[in-house]
Structure formats: structure tokens, C-alpha cells
Amino acid sequence: MSYAMIEVRTEAEKVGIITLNRPKQLNALNDQLMNELGAALQAFDADERIGCIIVTGSEKAFAAGADISAMAKYSFADVYKGDFISRNWETIRSIRKPVIAAVSGFALGGGCELAMMCDFIIAADNAKFGQPEIKLGVIPGAGGTQRLPRAVGKAKAMDMALTGRMMDAEEAERAGLVSRVVPLGKLQDEALGAALTISDFSRVAVMAAKESVNRAFESGLSDGVMFERRLFHALFATEDQKEGMDAFLNKRKAVFTHR
Ligand code: CAA
User: Is 133 a catalytic residue?
Assistant: First the structure.
């Protein structure tokens, strides 16, 4: 399938890379881009060879938010009846393979929210995160007021949502929004290295780990621990568990079959 607003490629036949590509608009997220992103994510999720997906942007912008020129004239009826945001932003939540956001430059508004919908964020040292919707007379609409406090706590989330200020990469790492910060020139290699590592692990175990960590944000501790325990038990039914443990005991590298 060919795309106009994203670029799609694979690395080592096991990592899928999606690059947002509207450079003149700093990757502002419009319907077409979000539809293409959703389709590309689903295609990689269905591709047996792919073990991990990276979503990235340009050096200047991961994404500067939802497309303001597309939104400016919308009425309440337009956005409510048209199910704006939900209609094509939620696909990423249904992706079962890990999705890494490799963020350089601006990740603002919907761009910050998109990064937070990925499983973890690796940031370049020039990354800037923010929820500046308040300056436009609205509030975050793609989960920013919900995922940001879960990531950085109430104080910083309120600060970001109420003042619209940006957080640099160092502050974002300190606050727990991003997992690693690397020099700009190393961002793609760092993300690819993480994705290749993940791709070589047992696919079933990787998907179970993602599902279980996500459950931590949807349930109380007892339910979450029980969910984890059942998945942990279930993994003893896989060939990969036998291989992983045998490889450790015999001091060799495990070769997983993903079954
Ligand atoms: N939507 C549409 N176009 C955008 C855009 C956006 N979110 N962000 C940037 N652009 C466009 C600019 O209009 C400009 O276009 P022209 O060259 O045609 O004028 C081009 O991208 C370059 O932008 P700037 O000239 O402004 O670049 P800069 O380096 O001076 O500033 C910036 C960069 C600080 C990111 C600034 O562009 C900015 O503040 N952008 C808007 C950020 C924002 O408010 N995002 C939230 C959007 S609302 C949202 O996302 C809702 C939600 O929760 C889903």
C-alpha cells in the first residue's frame, strides 16, 4: 500500500518503522495522516515477521499536534457527530505488538498524546513535550489529561495542561514521561536497537508483558497482580519458555520460535 503522509519501511525483516511525513506542517496530525498511520500499524501488527514497531517524525518535529487549520472551523455538531479523535486515533491502542515512539523536536498537543499512546518513548535531547491546547481555547482531546498525570503525576500534568508550557527532554526523563534520552544523532539507532532486542524475544512473552503492564493502568493492584499471574502461568505452555530456560541453564543464547 502506498501512503502520502507517512513513510513505511522495515529493518532486518523484523522491525517496522513508520515516519510521519508532513514536514512543512511540522507533522500536524490530520485525518488522512491518522488513517494512514492506523493502516500501517495494523499491517505491521498482522505481519508475522515483525516483532516491534517504531513511530517517529523529523528532527524538528515528532508532531506539533492535531492540524489546527483543519479543526479551526469545526462546530460542536461536527466534532461530536463525526466522533473527532476517536474515529481514527484509537487504532494504536488495539496494536498488540510493542510500539516505540522515537521523538525528536516538538511533540505537542496530539503529538505528545500520540507519543504517550505508544508503549514507551525514547527521546532525542532536542525533544520538547507539551499540551498547549489551553492556548487555543480548548483542552487536550486525545488522552492528554489522562495519560500525562499517569506518566508524570498530577503536579506536572496540571502545570503542563494549565500553562501550556513545554517540557524539555531532560525534564521529561526526570518526570518519567520518557524512558531514555540520547543525542539527536543517535535517536534512530537507539530506537532500532531496542526494537531489534524486543523482536528477538519470545513474541508471546513480549505481547503478554505489554498486555500486563497496560493492565496496571486499568485495574486495582489485586486484579492486576492476578492478571499478571495468569499470563505468567500461561507462558509455561509455550515452546519459548522451554527454550529460554534451557538456554540459560546450558549457558547458550536462546533462539525463540515465537510459539
Ligand atoms: N496544525 C497546523 N499547522 C501547524 C501546526 C498545527 N498543530 N503546528 C505547526 N503548524 C504549521 C504552522 O502553521 C506553519 O505553517 P506555515 O509555514 O504555513 O505558516 C508551519 O507548521 C511551521 O510552524 P511555525 O512557523 O509556527 O514554526 P516555529 O518553529 O516558529 O514554531 C511550534 C513551532 C512552537 C511547534 C508552533 O508551530 C506551534 O506552536 N504549533 C502549534 C502547537 C499546538 O498548539 N498544538 C496543539 C494542537 S491542538 C491538539 O493537538 C488537540 C488534541 O489534543 C488532539
Answer: yes
The protein residue with its alpha carbon nearest to ligand 1, atom 10, reads 25
Residue nearest to atom 15 of ligand 1 (CA): 25
> SS in 3 state form for the chain?
CCCCCEEEEEECCCEEEEEECCHHHCCCECHHHHHHHHHHHHHHHHCCCCCEEEEECCCCEEECCECHHHHCCCCHHHHHHCCCCHHHHHHHHHCCCCEEEEECCEEECHHHHHHHHCCEEEEECCCEEECHHHHHCCCCCCCHHHHHHHHHCHHHHHHHHHHCCEEEHHHHHHHCCCCEEECHHHHHHHHHHHHHHHHHCCHHHHHHHHHHHHHCCCCCHHHHHHHHHHHHHHHHHCHHHHHHHHHHHCCCCCCCCCC
Q: Which fold has domain 202-250?
A: Lyase 2-enoyl-coa Hydratase; Chain  A, domain 2 (1.10.12)
Q: Tens of pLDDT along the chain (259 residues)? A: 789 999 999 999 999 999 999 999 999 999 999 999 999 999 999 999 999 999 999 999 999 999 999 999 999 999 999 999 999 999 999 999 999 999 999 999 999 999 999 999 999 999 999 999 999 999 999 999 999 999 999 999 999 999 999 999 999 999 999 999 999 999 999 999 999 999 999 999 999 999 999 999 999 999 999 999 999 999 999 999 999 999 999 999 999 998 7
* Residue 66 designated active-site: yes
Ligand 1 proximity of 42 Cβ (cutoff 6 Å): no
Q: Is the CB of 106 under 6 A from ligand 1?
A: yes
